[in-house]
Amino acid sequence: MNELRERIEMKQDRRKIYYDKNRKQVFYSPGDKVWVTSHPISNKFKRKTSKFAPRRDGPYIILTQRSPTTYEIASPSDPSTSLGTYHTSALRSYSRNMEADTPLHPIRKRGRPPKLNFPFSPGTNRLPDNSNSVSLPRRRRSQRGRMYLDVNDISRMPEDLNIFKDLERLDLSNNQITVLPNNIVSNLSKLSTLILSYNKLQCIQVDSLLGLKSLRILSLQGNDISMIPDGAFRELVSITHIALGANPLYCDCNLRWLSEWIKQDYIEPGIARCAEPRSMKDKLVLTAASDGFVCTGKPEAEVLAKCDACYTFPCQNGATCKPKPLRDYECICAPGYHGAKCEYVIDACYGNPCENGGTCKVLEAGRFSCHCPAGYEGDRCETNIDDCVDNKCENNATCVDLIEEYECRCNPGYTGNYCEKKINFCSKEFNPCKNGATCIDENYSYSCACSLGFTGENCTININDCLDHLCQNGGTCIDGINTYRCQCQDGFSGAFCELENMVDLLYPQTSPCQHHDCKHGVCFMPSNAKDYICKCSQGFTGKRCEFLTSINFHDGSYVELDPLHTKPDAKVSITFATEQSYGVMLYNGESQHLAVELFRGRIRVSYDVGNYPVSTMFSYETVSDGNPHTVELMLMKKNFTMRVDNGTSRTIVNEGVKEYLEVSSPLYIGGVSEEVASSALRQWHLRNTSSFDGCIKDVRLNGKLLDFMIARKQQRVAPGCSELEENKPCKEHLCKKGKCVPLDKSSYECQCRKGWSGEHCDQAPTCQKEQYREFLEENGCRSTKMIKMANCVGSCGDQCCRPQRIKRRSVRMICHEHSHQTNTIVSSLKPNVKTGQFWRGVEWKVGYQPIPVSIMQFGMEAEGMRKKKAWVTSSISL
């Protein structure tokens, strides 16, 4: 029986520890004022205090703390007399706006407040990755102080942690911390949770956790801790959990105190196991017998060196090793030695007096000599030998002294090691002019007279003759030397692709496709059709595939167009897809400009109508994900508005005197030419002049779809945007009265307009008004004439039929003789004094499905009257 009672008591104690651990802790100091919560309604049969009707009494003062969760209180008028010990769940901090309800009732049983969860999710105080600084924003007093510094590669405990005195939770897990220094968190008296798991901790010093009297949870799991000094946890009076698992604990007599302390105070140590010595290996610290923690010999040097860097005797030549914080040490050298480990002898060469890499050699006591490297001289190798004293430079060349040599810097027109040769610029061996250019010797320089088709200082640049080509009908210009040729599309010929190919009239016409006019596609004759259709090549649209509306850009690509017209306003819309984070999308300007580019995956806009400084804006959305996006731009005088994917519009204003963006230079899409790129980068219009890499389609300028075929110039672009045009199930959808919504790459569904239904939204609404007439009767009263009303019939898809408008009208009603009449109204009673008539307001909704009328009662006197007429105001929908 006694054994059973002990088990029950142990179970109750463990349950108490569990609830105390999960209860929100509030700490009081002697002299603090508190309210006491009591429960006057008690259950005498079960001898328990009820949870019902709690009352507040006080205020009282705290005398002393009896345990981590209980306090002894007294009356402020008699602080020497104790009124009993109370659990923290029955105490509340004193506030003047709180009043006492009833006298104090002793609390007979400790309450169990609800469990509190401590989330380990990232907080707002988390440091950026790879950071060693602490940045905690200001918080309201009512907010719990939390700091998350996990996964930051921190190698040392931040030295300024003690300034955050209100901190309650600190997470430093998954870092590189090796040592827990003394007094590092001594000011964090409110800290309840400290997480140091999965670091490289090897040493916990005796005063490392000093001052943490509120600490309940300490996580040291997954470190390299072998020994913990006795007394390291002496101030952890509130501790309930210590996680020590996955540490190579050395369980000899020096760690016996930890096992006894855990068992004595019911501390939960997790799965802390011993690693050494062999007799204790794999035993749990919680369950291992205390007499097993014995010292049978000296621990290995590797274990002792974790907290004592001097244990391996790193100092040499009889030096004294002095331990320093953070597992460091200092060697105090014996006389005559120096160095970090006292490995060097102090002699005449101490401090290396030789300069410029000279080698010091001791000659005898107090004397040394320096052996200088080549090119230096002097007692300490301090002088660079002047090699220009007897130089051989000719033709007024400049001699530059080097180390053990010199260099001759020649004047223009001369060359050679000593500038002894005059340059014959136009000689066969040296002639720099290329591509058949004529070299002109100008004594000390030269110039090149270039052949036709070339330019540049040395005539190395082939002039692009395609800048003003005359190729027609989609022909591609191919540059040559001082000429070009046109590569025609199918169906065209001629020097400039200006001629359509003639049909061979010798053969009979068997198909309309023999005379088709599909520009950039193939002719297709469907079965049982009277005419052909054109199936366009990628990038082309139109009935005859005559418009190029989508193109692919890559490195060095761009399209040059006429300047953008900005008066009275301008609208630009671009649909695009890219996986690159940088690239020019649109540029038009000189000093005034509009620049739209991708910058770090977002859309950057620079807008300047001539009012300094430039206005800049970035999109909230990231668009470099390879998916299609649409950006809409609107210019209205100084105002510029951008919207991405029909989202929220953003606007900037280029404030100043000037009103409009006025530019005469070409409009570029997808990139810019080299000359424009250099200017735009120099003026900070563009942050990166790389060409757009991806697809652009459906470009609309002032509402008109852009045909890239009419561009001034197309540079390294290819028709078509496979990323945007493939896998579009809604391209040929069958939704009649609704919107096509893709479900995946091959299917879609129709979202019907209001009232429409059916798989393809092809069933029209049949809901309509059905009018009728009848008398309105209520409580023995009836309208004098039939009232016109309406019902709804039919269907409205998945929408309800409801009235859309309501009309109010007056209805005259007649009532039978009664001494006391009870009628029904909605609005207030309004008598007519002259005629003795009564008015009532009734709301009657008709049109689609009518809503029943709600009626209220009223009384009417009718003394000495056989019949009375009542006028009623009704509201009827028509």
From TrEMBL:
Any single GO CC term annotated in Swiss-Prot or TrEMBL for this entry: cell surface
GO BP terms, alphabetized: axon guidance; embryonic organ development; formation of animal organ boundary; regulation of cell-cell adhesion; reproductive structure development; sex differentiation
InterPro entries: ConA-like_dom_sf, Cys-rich_flank_reg_C, Cys_knot_C, EGF, EGF-like_Ca-bd_dom, EGF-type_Asp/Asn_hydroxyl_site, EGF_Ca-bd_CS, Laminin_G
SUPFAM superfamilies in the cross-refs: Concanavalin A-like lectins/glucanases (SSF49899), EGF/Laminin (SSF57196), L domain-like (SSF52058)
Residue span, CTCK domain: 767-815
Cystine bridges: 333-342, 372-381, 410-419, 450-459, 488-497, 513-523, 536-545, 730-740, 752-761
Annotated keywords: Developmental protein, Disulfide bond, EGF-like domain, Glycoprotein, Leucine-rich repeat, Repeat, Signal
Domain named EGF-like: residues: 308-343, 345-382, 384-420, 422-460, 462-498, 509-546, 726-762
GO molecular function: calcium ion binding; heparin binding; Roundabout binding
UniProt domain Laminin G: residue ranges: 548-721
Biased segments, Polar residues type: 122-135
Region (Disordered), start-end ranges: 103-141
Highest taxon in the source lineage: Eukaryota
Protein name: Protein slit like protein
Organism: Argiope bruennichi (Wasp spider)
